Structures are given as structure tokens and as C-alpha cells.
Amino acid sequence: MSSYRTLQWDDRTNTLVLLDQRFLPHRIQFVTCGDEQQTAEAIRNMTIRGAPAIGAAAAFGLALAAFRCTSSNPQEIRERIENAARQLASARPTAVNLQWALTRVLNKLATAEGNPEDLRKLILEEAIQIAEEDVQINKKIGLNALQILPEEINFIHHCNTGALATVDYGTALGIIRTAHEHGRKVFVFVDETRPRLQGAKLTAWELQQLGIPFKVIVDGASGFVMKRFRIDAVVVGCDRVAANGDTANKIGTYNLALAAKAHGVPFYVACPTSTIDLRITSGDQIPIEEREAEEITHLEGTPICPQGTAVFNPAFDVTPAELITAIITENGVCYPPFIHSLSGVVHPA
Fold this sequence. Notes:
Layout: E1 7-10, E2 15-19, E3 30-33, H1 36-44, H2 51-68, H3 74-89, H4 96-110, H5 116-146, E4 152-157, H6 172-181, E5 185-191, H7 198-210, E6 214-217, H8 222-228, E7 233-236, E8 240-242, E9 247-250, H9 253-263, E10 267-270, E11 276-277, H10 294-297, E12 298-299, E13 302-303, E14 316-319, E15 326-329, E16 332-334, H11 338-346
Parallel strand pairs: 4-5, 4-7, 5-6, 7-10, 8-11, 10-15
Antiparallel strand pairs: 1-2, 2-3, 8-9, 9-14, 12-13, 15-16
Helix pairs in contact: 1-2, 1-3, 2-3, 2-4, 2-5, 3-4, 4-5, 5-6, 8-9
């Protein structure tokens, strides 16, 4: 796999450098964010995407706010950071990692003392810690999945959940990567993932880099693929998991879970515990982001629908817990009833 990282702090300029995923797989291009507004826009326009990645980016966005505030008054720096947190939180509402990372940094700030330079250093250190922890969490998820995977395994994977969707390594794609790196015989059917084609563009690119065999399929082909071929597991990521196990993920995940249930295929969710939201009891309470009509009516800038076509474009759907075989976290594998098992991994004894 290439050494490209989704995001990187530049110590020389105190800026955040992002791999611009809108141009992959055909062009490697980076974007530099100099303040919290630019970071929020990069999250909103999907320069960077994936729940763990945007959480880390938001934390660095608060560091940018601290460094761009030139005041010598610590209270003014705190106010700038709090305002930045509100702006960043509104960039994309479904992924709970965004608010989780912001809250973690703000809680650190609330108990901190010192001069402005001390505060800037503390916030940056916390953002770096969040980023580094993400890599280790992803690797633990992959290792925990090994115990439930056969030696030879055909996957179906939805959207992109690899190194590009995280700080590095990946969640659901990290499970596939771990299986491959531990000598399992792996093959992946990759959903193209309309409307932005994260599967066809990003997941296919990552699997190619990793040397893992795969084929891209259209989203509507998953049921036929399960009927025609031996599929051992569907593995997906998540953007928010409710206390009962209902899981918000990229639009099309619910359909895929229904197809898996109909064909008796295990359906696994790869989930950092930071994505579990025990404050909400079910998926009915998860806010679902709706995006621009042009994502559906246009393809690579070219119109494909009649002019004036009305569009409903939810970015996510919610898969009911009863369709999920297991939720794999860095602290262990959770099985139904999730209302008990999820709280155990979020608050381990």
C-alpha cells in the first residue's frame, strides 16, 4: 500500500494537509487547510470523508482555530475554539465521530490552564492523539474479526472503509486487509456505491494497491451475486450505531443487509467504539444527511437525467439491528442482543 495518508499535520506551517479524495483514483492531489472554515468545507464537500477520518479532521480543525487566533487572551482563544466546534459539527450531521472528537478536545480544553501557547499545544497534542489512536483501533478491529472468518472467504463490501476513510488502515476494509495479511484466501465483490461511487473509485483503488483480488459490481447486483456465488460474509463500516444496534451507514447498506438475510449470508459491521452512540435508543433518532441533487442527476459533471428532475438524495440509511449478525469493535465482537453487548465494549469492565 502506498504511503499516502488521509490527513497530516504540517508542523512547519501549522496547517492540515488532506489527500483530496474527489480526484481519486486518477489523480493524487492534496489540499491544505489553514483554518477551521476551510476544514469544515473540506468535510462538507467530501475532500475528506469516512466517519473516523472526519472526526480526526475536526479535531485538527480546532487546533487550526487555536493557531489562527493571535490574541494573547486565553479566554478569546477558548471562544474561538468553541465557535469553531459549532461550525465543524454542522458540516456533516450523521457521523457521530465528528461530534465525539470535538467533544473530546473541548473537554480537554475545559480543564486546562495556562497561557495561549500552552492551550495551542494541548489542543494539537489531543488531535494528534486521536489520529494515532484511530490507526491502532482499526488494526484491533481487524484482528478481532479473524476469529469469526473462515480460511477461504468471499466478501461483499459496500462504500469505502479503508485507509482513505480513516486516518490509516481502515475498518471494514481493514478486516479484509487483516485477513489477507494473515494468509486467508480472500476475494472481494465491491459495490460501486452510487451516487458518488466510493466503491468503484476508492475501494477498488485501495484493493489494487494491496494486491487483494476483487471485482466491482453495481449496487443492484448484490442479491444475484449472493445467489450465483458462494458469499461468506458481507462487511460494512458505520457512521453511527444506536444503543440497540441499529446502524447508520452509506445509502444502500440497508438493501444489502436485506439481501444478505434472504440468502443466509452473515452481515458484519466494523465499528470503532467512538461510533457507538449510547445516548440514542434506536436508529429512528439518527439524523440523516441529505445531499445535493446534482450527485444523482449528473455523473462526473455530465447531466444524465432530464432537466428539472426531482431528486431525493439521502447520504445514509439505517440498517435495523435484527439484520446484523455481529458488530466488530476494537474491544471485542458484539452479538445480539446489542443493547447489552454494545454497552459492554463502550464501558469495558
